[in-house]
Design a protein that fits this description.
about 180 residues; alpha+beta; Cyclic Phosphodiesterase, Chain: A; five-stranded antiparallel β-sheet; four-stranded antiparallel β-sheet
């Protein structure tokens, strides 16, 4: 079984900008994601039989969405500022339609449907526990960064990725790339 997901990768020149944003949260009990690994997940597939990868890649090839420009910026949190579990970077563009298309072409595989409304974002860090004494300072930093812009890039491909979990963090490998029309 292979742990897999479908994603849009960021341009390499975003790595430094993302690392700078993450550094603003260094005084808090967070676990930052390696800036080289940050991406926008369109669909988490979970554990997939290796012999299904080729069929999944073929189905993803049926996606019929034109490439588009995306604006990356705005820092937010899930589920809410008073109880933070994830710090994220927002993404604006045609991600909703792209996500719906991915769901549609993968429907025959009976993957679990996303229970929440899709929100295009990239996870910057996870928060295990935020002590009450740190919340005010954290919310102040979050407020200062809220409207931070990273930039705009052209989304012209999606990738089927393998995720190998290790004690040092996940290792991602691209299994298949689909170019958007």
């Amino acid at each position: 079984m292979i742990r897999t997901f479908v994603a849009v990768d960021f341009p390499q020149d975003y790595v430094e900008k993302i690392a700078r944003i993450q550094s603003k949260f260094k005084d808090f009990n967070i676990k930052p994601i390696d800036p080289n690994l940050i991406h926008i997940t369109l669909k988490f597939l979970g554990d997939v039989n290796e012999n299904k990868i080729e069929q999944i890649a073929g189905a993803l090839g049926e996606i019929n969405i034109p490439s588009f420009d995306a604006r990356i910026g705005n820092i937010g949190v899930f589920p809410k500022p008073q109880y933070v579990k994830v710090i994220w970077l927002g993404a604006e563009g045609n991600f909703g339609e792209l996500h719906d298309n991915v769901e549609s072409v993968l429907k025959p595989f009976k993957f679990k449907k996303d229970k929440n409304t899709y929100t295009a974002h990239a996870t910057l860090a996870r928060v295990k526990y935020m002590p009450e004494k740190d919340k005010e300072a954290f919310l102040r930093v979050l407020g200062e960064l809220k409207n931070t812009g990273i930039g705009t890039f052209h989304v012209d491909a999606i990738k089927l990725k393998k995720s190998t979990l290790t004690p040092g963090g996940p290792i991602y490998e691209t299994l298949h790339e689909v170019r958007l029309k």
